[in-house]
Structures are given as C-alpha cells and as structure tokens.
C-alpha cells in the first residue's frame, strides 16, 4: 500500500474492516474492490460509485414481483428481470476486459464475468428476500436458490438459464476434467467469492505484463482478507522487484523466508538468495 496516499489507505482500511465483520457485506466489498480499478473524478460526491451502485441494486430489487415464492419461481423471476428485461449476461469477449470484474462497471454495462453477474443476482435477490447463495463451481460461478439440499441452480452468464444436475456436471467436467463433487455445490462464503474475484483480476494482469499496477492492488487487497494463501506475500515481493522497487521487494522476501524457514528451510534459503539478488540490482 502507498503510505503517502491517505485516500487509498482509508478505502483499504474500510475494506479490511468489512472483511472482518461478523457478516461481511459482499456488495460493499466488491464495490470497494472496484474502486481500485476506477480512479475518482475530482470533486465527485460519490467518487467511487459505491452509493450509486447500492442504489441501483436496491432499484432492481424493487422491480421484482412482491410476495413469497418457491425456489424455482425466484429463479424464474430473476431470469425474467435481470436476464430478459435488463440484459445482464456475458460472452467470451468479457473475459478480456478488466471492467468485467468491477461491480460498478458490470451494473453500468450489464456485462461481466460469471462471478460478477452472479454477485448482481445474489445482491438483487437478497434485497428482495429470496433464499439465494453463490455456488463456486470450478471454472464457472453460478447462483443457487432455496434450501442448499434441494437447490435450484441458474447461470447468470447465460441470462439466467436454469441448470440441471447434469448441466452442472458437464460444466465442471468441461472446466476441470473431473466429476462434480457434492462439496462443489455448497454455498460460497462472501470472502471466498471476493478472493476468487481478486484471483481472476490477478490472472488478467498476469497476461498483460504492462499492468503490474493492477496485479499489485489485487494482491494487496487479497492480503487484507483475514484468510489468504501465505504464498501471496512472496508473489507481492516478486512483483515489487519486477516494478523496480528492489529494496521493498527484497525486504518482503526476507520476511516471507522467516515464515517458511521452520517448514521448508531449503526453500527459505533460496528465497533469501533471491532477496540478495534483488538488492544487487541497485548496484
């Protein structure tokens, strides 16, 4: 994090606090994440579009028919509103765009990756009182309605097409070559969803060496989550070196080496050598 930027520091503090809340707000976390990708215009009352996006989610929820319904009826109502009337969906082209992972932009463009479109569905449905949850299938995030034991699945990426058990099986097999396991269908927790979004952003940036700025803020937000892979600290150190911040990167490599020293001393020693090599680049 850039310590000289109090606006960024304040926003990330809010992100970290929300991530540690008893019941993290998925929409707010996604919008604070999106603020990293959308620099504010000077003097705007809502510079990161957080309030406007929350208002839009509320507005969409208000368009759903009022009254209790079963899981299949909820899924149909969301598909009719978001998929048909509003045109929320995705295509292969959306995988090439960073704004397909930014909730503010997905609400504006009505296009996005499966996981962001699912976040829209989840947040609109939740506001309307629907029993809704995310389902983090390998390679393709979808939405579930009703009791998780008797779920009804829908795919927001295709406008809300219903998914049978066989459809889900084919989706997982096509993405991973493996069979669908019951554990893949459990409701996804908000922080798992946010980390998966950040992983997508890091993958997008990794394919674009000129966008180390995006890779860095995605890593730094990942590290603010209360549970994250320890290796992300080493990845951040490597990225700092790649960006020419040799001393900061070397210092973080040394810190990471201390963490792994008790488990893999050989790996720790190799990391220390890389830290020395990074410092040597200053000479």
Automatic annotation (TrEMBL):
Coiled-coil blocks: none
Ranges annotated as spanning the membrane: none
Domain of life according to the entry: Bacteria
Residues of the Protein SirB1 N-terminal domain: 57-199
InterPro entries: SirB1_N
Family to which this protein belongs: Belongs to the UPF0162 family.
Protein name stated in the entry: Transglutaminase-like domain-containing protein
Organism: Streptomyces atroolivaceus
């Amino acid at each position: 994090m850039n310590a000289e930027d109090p606006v960024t520091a304040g926003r990330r503090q809010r992100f970290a606090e929300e991530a540690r809340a008893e019941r993290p707000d998925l929409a707010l976390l996604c919008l604070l994440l999106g603020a990293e990708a959308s620099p504010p215009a000077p003097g705007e009352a809502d510079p990161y579009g957080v309030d406007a996006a929350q208002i839009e989610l509320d507005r969409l929820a208000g368009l759903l028919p009022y009254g209790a319904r079963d899981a299949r009826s909820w899924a149909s109502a969301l598909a009719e509103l978001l998929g048909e009337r509003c045109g929320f969906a995705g295509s292969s082209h959306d995988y090439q765009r960073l704004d397909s992972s930014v909730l503010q932009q997905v609400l504006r463009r009505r296009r996005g990756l499966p996981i962001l479109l699912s976040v829209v569905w989840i947040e609109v449905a939740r506001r309307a009182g629907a029993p809704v949850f995310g389902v983090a299938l390998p390679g393709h995030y979808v939405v579930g309605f009703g009791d998780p034991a008797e779920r009804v699945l829908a795919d927001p990426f295709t406008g809300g097409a219903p998914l049978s058990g066989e459809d889900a099986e084919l989706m997982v097999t096509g993405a991973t070559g493996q069979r669908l396991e019951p554990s893949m269908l459990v409701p996804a927790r908000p922080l798992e969803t946010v980390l998966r979004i950040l992983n997508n952003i890091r993958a997008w940036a990794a394919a674009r060496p000129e966008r180390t700025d995006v890779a860095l803020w995605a890593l730094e937000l990942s590290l603010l989550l209360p549970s994250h892979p320890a290796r992300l600290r080493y990845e951040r150190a490597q990225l700092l070196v790649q960006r020419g911040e040799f001393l900061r990167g070397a210092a973080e490599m040394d810190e990471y080496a201390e963490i792994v020293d008790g488990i893999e001393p050989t790996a720790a020693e190799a990391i220390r050598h890389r830290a020395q090599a990074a410092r040597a680049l200053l000479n």
